[in-house]
Amino acid sequence: MTAHDAVPLSVVDSWWRAANYLSVGQIYLLDNPLLKRPLKVDDIKPRLLGHWGTTPALNFIYAHLNKLIVERSSNVIYIAGPGHGGPGVVANAWLDGTYSELFPQVSQNGEGMRRLFRQFSFPGGIPSHAAPETPGSINEGGELGYSLVHAYGAALDNPDLITACVIGDGEAETATLATSWHLNKFLSPMTDGAVLPILNLNGYKIANPTVLARIPEHELESLFIGYGYSPRIVAGGFDDEDPMAVHQRFADTMAQAFDDIATIQRQARSGGETARAAWPMVILKTPKGWTGPKFVDGLPVENTWRAHQVPLAGVRDNPEHLAQLQEWLMSYRPGELFDAHGKPVVELAPARPAGDLRMSANPHANGGLLRKALTLPALDAVAVDITPGDGPSGPGTGAEGRGAVAEPTRVLGAWLRDLIRLNPESFRIFGPDEVASNRLDDVYEVTAKEWQAEVLETDENLSHDGRVIEILSENLAQGLLEGYLLTGRHGLFTSYEAFIHVVDSMFNQYAKWLESSAKVEWRRPISSFTYLLSSHVWRQDHNGFSHQDPGFLDHVVNKQSSVVRVYLPPDANTLLVTAEHCLASRDYVNVIVAGKQPTASLLSLEEARTHGARGVSVWEWAGTERVGEEPDVVVAAAGDVPTVEAMAAVQILKKEIPALAVRFVNVVDLMRLQEQTEHPHGLDAASFDAVFTTDKPVVFAFHGYPSLIHRLTYRRTNHANIHVRGFKEMGTTTTPFDMLMLNDLDRFRLVMDVIRRVPRLSTAYAGLSQKMDDARAAHRAYTRAHGEDAPDVTGSAGLVFASDEDVEEAGDTGDDNARGGRGEFG
């Protein structure tokens, strides 16, 4: 048979019956896979897990897609949205031959079939979803709602790919899926592939009817026309209708859908049609549990909610149920589908695509096979130039004696601009309407925002071929990037910090996917998922309490250490180094938190590289300890604003308590705080103790909730002496410094903490502590009187270094705070 010979519908039907047989077998059978003898109780699994209701329609659609692939040599991947359709996707991968190629022990014979059945939802086996272990899958479906957004992400920049996405009608009620229909406004027929949504209306969820199955057909059709699609409705499987008639209707509809996709793309790519296309979609109405038992114990099952999971639940205890299972399996006529040795009969071969055209073997569904490393532009061209001036020793200090100022994310935006220029077809930025707000708008010098809907004269930076996709849904930005990465490309998700919580659940599922994928030998590594969280808690003083929440970090670190990485770069150059590292990495979820407001630039590019590689560094130039002597206290910081405040606190201490030896530590890689046994980035015990000491007070200024630092360090020797200041759920619309004071993270409070925790200071410097408290009151009064912060805490990004005179008055004649005096930790 050549690639363009027609596949008879009788073969499609046989394939469908074979997949259904294999699906039922996975749910029920431990042994006797070919029913060579009547079923016995010992043939049945002790725990019946899995979901039958959605599976037959998934198998039906798969068989018809195979027909089209064979006839047209189409490049198609299959996304199974219904949550527990795993039996069907696994069954078809086994029929394709891919499963046995990747798992030779699950061979295409009777013993392989027995193993296939036994492993499903069984200890030591495979999950009930289309998990990473399932060939051809990029969407597990374990948490409903992400199938369509994954399909669109996969289609971007894949002009020859069709992503066939099966959507369950229960899944269609979820928020992410309901919004995903709008993604046709971001799909370019010129440069992207196509998405063919196939909505399977089987009428029921677990115990309730579905909304879309219970509205009039004209209303259903109007809904999808309103979304911008060209819907085609096919119903079948009801009232004992001849299956071949249903096959014919569906085959005709699918062929027309593929023809329409080809026409839309041909017209766009030939320079003809420029108006937004009405892409086809298919609505397939079938009974839930189609071809399964119609009645069990006198109650209707097929076409009811009772078919959702296991229609015959008492097979091991009820002889009638066991007999019904035997009858159900035999209804597929397995003797016509598998030979005496259990191998699929040769008559099924015409419906099996060849090689990589098999949906279970398509390399787009194992994106690491297609991934090419990014071409990374040099950082030097955009890095902030740190040049010592005439002021006191310290980085970034000019004649004014203040840190050089830059907007970190704006600096990053210039580098991302160059990155897009060098990678015009494999890198995209996704976000909810915040690329410009987060100061990344330099990227618009080389690209625009993808947009296929109406464009007005007042619009800016919209294009039919943009590399930025913005839609006001964090869920869709997340899902698009997941689909894009899973099919072998690269990208970045940028968001306001407080609202990234919208995707907490999606992050969970994706992190779990990566965790599981790492254990699947044939899954190739993919580009890491990188979040850039800006407009963060400490500079959301203008938007108020609703925009103030750094808790995503707490959520992220719950996941396995093999997957998650968290970075808090303190300045622009460290952000550049961090972004370069993250975007080149594979198989991680990276979270970068960085500010967009002007802030002190503390490290040169070379120093930032060193600091980034260490993850934790002692900044001798920012402290007051002398080489070779033990510090009296450690002041540590993680995050840009906390670093500024902690450094300012040390400057006060340098002036007011000149004899105090203060060690300053900055943490850019948060996971370095964990023990080496708990995270691959964790510091070993000796290195951690060398930096943070074993017995000295540690005052830690942290970007997020203080409890997170305690969670990460609770096993450390000196944990009892670690005192953390961070966000403690005190927020409002106020000034930036008042926001810090509300949460006791300001420089004055940090000085007070040092005084109270260094034993010999608490009494001797009670007056200084009172002075700091008075300063807090004065600054609060200033904000109430003037509506802004006092100049002494704003200046050049609020970081005011002590003057030469101050240092001399403090009696510091050494040079160990100079830039050249830094040393490595540990």
Automatic annotation (TrEMBL):
Residues 804-815 have a biased composition (Acidic residues). Its cofactor is thiamine diphosphate. Residues 9-369 form the Xylulose 5-phosphate/Fructose 6-phosphate phosphoketolase N-terminal domain. Residues 816-826 have a biased composition (Basic and acidic residues). Gene3D superfamilies: 3.40.50.920, 3.40.50.970. GO terms for molecular function: aldehyde-lyase activity; magnesium ion binding. Pfam families: XFP (PF03894), XFP_C (PF09363), XFP_N (PF09364). Its EC number is 4.1.2.-. Residues 596-794 form the Xylulose 5-phosphate/Fructose 6-phosphate phosphoketolase C-terminal domain. Keywords: Lyase, Thiamine pyrophosphate. HAMAP family: Phosphoketolase. NCBIfam families: PRK05261.1-2, PRK05261.1-4. This is Probable phosphoketolase.
